[in-house]
Design brief:
alpha/beta; TIM Barrel; Cyclin A, domain 1; 3 domains; 11 strands
Length: about 500
């Protein structure tokens, strides 16, 4: 029997997998968080830089306020952040000076756990990010091994990579991340002992596996049977499909198999009920169990990337191209030397496949991100790159530039000179990595949006003896009434 702890990924990965990273708002987090706090999770995966950017770009919300709101409502649950250690919001290599600032701000605003997962398995880079995270104040740093299938991702490859994590005092534990849901119970049974045997001072005891192929609920049970103690799951409607196993069902299955899981399922149900109501109001899709699809093992594109691709093609008026882009992504990945299909490389692959399909000519236009990848910004690719593609990419002006290794002569003071000395650290970071118009809109929304106006009225009513506040504008009357019996 294994004593299993659960990690909730609804807010970050469930949202990114099923709602294209744009469904979750601060208000929804505020509504669900009190019940999530009562569940007894080992941790809650709250955000990645993609979710921070989505808050600004799509909702005009301050992502730092989102983090603070979550922490205020989940004070006893560790909140986590996911990073590749190579990019922060931008889709190009982010300088270390910005990562150092980002890590300090994440800790300052309430994040205590960090997952570091380098899709190219640059373990020296992951160790360096772990050390930076510890200096910034993270109390729990988890380094990852990213699973995929390809001719080059063999047991020997994974064993060599995970062994490179040994001896790093800044890493507290190791987890196995399966972003495409490719793991099977049989594969885990053979792979896990190989990986654990190469760790001498760390423990691989955490599994993150998407339900895309329908197999991860079974793979999670196998993980518990093998002694893994931390399993990732999500709450409906943000579970199943391209997301993660449904928490309540996973708990029932683990207990039926004889494992111990100390969580409050009633609290899970209350949080799920709230999120389900919100999904219906906002017309957001609910995840549902997927049937096994053998063809999925050809393209391996994670669910979040698929949902984002579908949304973007619809916005372009070309939704019928979805299947063609998915098929082209198989060839693009092979030509690029078999990078793991996860953020950011999944987006690079899908973007290039989209360009190939829309233009009607393969690599007529090579995206800047693919050029960066091929010139070495993210380290050596695991397999052989198509020589024609490599020549075309490196012959461009961008391809002739030296690889970016994260170093920069800029300092935080230089950033202040560029963007404004009166800015908060939080706004400074956003302006350094996002378009100015997006951040400007977020700043305006603090005082001009209906939500900010309503919050201001509610704050004005605090501590006052008045029972009703009324506001009139033209032919519209708005009233706020204090409930009877509520202490002032």
């Amino acid at each position: 029997m294994t004593s299993v702890s659960l990690v909730d990924v609804s807010i970050r990965d469930g949202n990114q997998s099923l709602w294209g990273a744009v469904g979750m708002t601060t208000r929804m987090i505020e509504g669900a968080a009190p019940d999530i706090e009562q569940v007894g999770y080992r941790a809650v995966e709250l955000a990645s830089s993609t979710l921070l950017a989505s808050a600004v770009r799509f909702h005009r919300e301050d992502p730092w306020e989102m983090i603070r709101a979550a922490k205020a409502r989940m004070p006893h649950t560790p909140l986590g952040f996911l990073t590749t250690g190579k990019r922060f919001i931008t889709f190009y290599r982010t300088p270390d000076v910005l990562f150092e600032l980002a890590f300090r701000l994440l800790v300052r605003n309430g994040i205590s756990r960090l997952w570091v997962i380098d899709p190219m398995h640059d373990m020296a880079g992951a160790r360096r990010m772990a050390e930076m995270a510890k200096r910034a104040g993270f109390t729990d740093v988890v380094a990852g091994v990213c699973y995929t299938t390809s001719p080059v991702h063999t047991d020997a490859y994974y064993a060599e990579r995970i062994a490179e994590l040994n001896g790093c005092d800044a890493i507290d534990s190791v987890y196995l991340k399966d972003p495409a849901g490719l793991l099977t119970p049989e594969r885990l049974r053979s792979l896990l002992p190989t990986l654990q045997s190469r760790l001498t001072d760390l423990r691989l005891d955490e599994l993150h596996s998407h339900a895309t192929t329908g197999l991860s609920p079974l793979t999670m049970l196998e993980a518990a049977d093998l002694g893994m103690t931390n399993l990732h799951c999500a709450l409906p409607p943000l579970a199943n499909g391209t997301s993660h196993p449904a928490a309540q069902h996973l708990v029932r299955n683990l207990r039926a198999r004889g494992h111990e899981v100390s969580v409050d399922v009633d609290a899970m149900d209350r949080a799920s009920a709230y999120l389900t109501r919100q999904a219906k109001i906002k017309r957001l899709p609910a995840g549902f169990p997927r049937e096994y699809d053998e063809a999925y093992y050809r393209h391996t594109i994670p669910g979040g990337v698929q949902s984002t691709l579908a949304r973007q093609l619809t916005e372009l008026g070309r939704p019928e191209l979805f299947d063609a882009v998915i098929e082209e992504s198989v060839a693009v990945r092979r030509d690029l030397g078999w990078p793991i299909v996860m953020t950011p490389f999944a987006q690079y692959i899908v973007t290039q496949a989209t360009l190939n399909v829309i233009s009607g000519e393969r690599y007529r236009q090579v995206s800047d991100e693919v050029v960066d990848l091929l010139r070495g910004d993210f380290g050596p690719l695991p397999g052989e790159v198509d020589p024609n593609l490599l020549d075309r990419a490196l012959s461009t002006p961008r391809g002739k530039l030296p690889p970016s290794d994260g170093s920069s002569t800029d300092t935080v003071d230089d950033l202040r000179a560029r963007f404004g000395r009166s800015l908060s650290d939080e706004e400074l970071l956003l302006r350094a990595v996002m378009p100015a118009e997006h951040v400007d809109a977020m700043v305006r929304a603090r005082t001009e949006s209906p939500t900010s106006t309503l919050k201001a009225l509610l704050r004005a009513a605090e501590g006052r003896s008045a029972t009703t506040i009324s506001v009139s504008a033209g032919d519209i009357d708005f009233h706020i009434r204090r409930r009877e019996g509520v202490a002032r």
